[in-house]
């Protein structure tokens, strides 16, 4: 899975190139001046791969919030009650209009909090703002737990925080 190759560096001193390969993913490589640092990188990277943490962000780099909301509206909302479906679609489309262009990996709690504050400035009640956050949070959880687009730790409890 990982190889360490000793090579001459630019300034003539020896460097160690680490390359980690896994089927279905691009190879990862890094260069170190110390063999101990190279070995540590191999251990940390392989442990992250075995735990499923290392390559999980690639999906988050491929999808925007608009992709997430579109799929959620197509696949998840139809199973809900008609009134819930209508209101949540409206709430999610608001988020899509605000942050739809952003990649999932770039959406942070601070970014969501800033838009939460926008909702408050638009004279929405605290309970309505919480419903907007809840709809978005559930979409993130589905993306993490069912679609594999995010790490589970990126789910709503971490990403969509700051209830009003």
Question: What is the topological layout?
Answer:
Blueprint: E1 2-8, E2 14-20, E3 28-32, H1 35-50, H2 57-62, H3 65-75, H4 82-99, H5 109-121, H6 126-145, H7 156-159
Antiparallel strand pairs: 1-2, 2-3
Protein described:
- The structure is a single chain.
- The mean pLDDT is 85.
- This protein folds into two domains: 2-55; 59-159, DNA polymerase, domain 1 (Orthogonal Bundle).
- It is mainly α and 164 residues long.
- It is built from seven helices and three strands.
- A three-stranded antiparallel beta sheet has the order 1-2-3, covered by helices on one side.
- It has helices at residues 35-50, 57-62, 65-75, 82-99, 109-121, 126-145, 156-159; strands spanning 2-8, 14-20, 28-32.
Number of E strands = 3
Q: Domains counted in the coordinates: how many?
A: 2
Quick one: biggest sheet?
3 strands, antiparallel
Instruction: Look at the structure and give the CATH class of the largest domain.
Output: Mainly Alpha
Which blocks of ≥5 consecutive residues have pLDDT under 50?
Answer: none
N-to-C order of helices and strands: EEEHHHHHHH
Shape: elongated
Named CATH architecture of the largest domain: Orthogonal Bundle
Physical arrangement of strands within the biggest beta sheet? 1-2-3
In short:
It contains seven helices and three strands. With 164 residues, it is mostly helical. Strand 1 and strand 2 (14-20) form a beta hairpin.
List the main descriptive attributes of the protein structure presented here.
single chain; 164 residues; mainly alpha; DNA polymerase, domain 1; 2 domains; 7 helices; elongated
């Amino acid at each position: 899975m990982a190889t360490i190759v000793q090579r001459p560096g630019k300034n003539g001193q020896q460097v160690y190139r680490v390359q980690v390969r896994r089927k279905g993913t691009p190879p990862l490589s890094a260069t170190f001046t110390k063999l101990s640092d190279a070995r540590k990188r191999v251990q940390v990277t392989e442990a992250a791969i075995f735990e499923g943490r290392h390559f999980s962000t690639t999906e988050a780099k491929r999808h925007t919030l608009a992709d997430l909301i579109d799929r959620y509206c197509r696949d998840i909302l139809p199973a809900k009650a008609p009134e819930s479906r209508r209101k949540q679609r409206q709430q999610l489309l608001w988020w899509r209009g605000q942050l739809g262009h952003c990649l999932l990996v770039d959406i942070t709690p601070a970014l969501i909090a800033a838009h939460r504050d926008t909702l408050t400035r638009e004279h929405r009640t605290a309970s309505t703002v919480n419903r907007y956050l809840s709809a978005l949070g559930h979409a993130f959880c589905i993306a993490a737990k069912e679609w594999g687009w995010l790490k589970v730790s990126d789910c709503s409890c971490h990403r969509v925080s700051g209830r009003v």
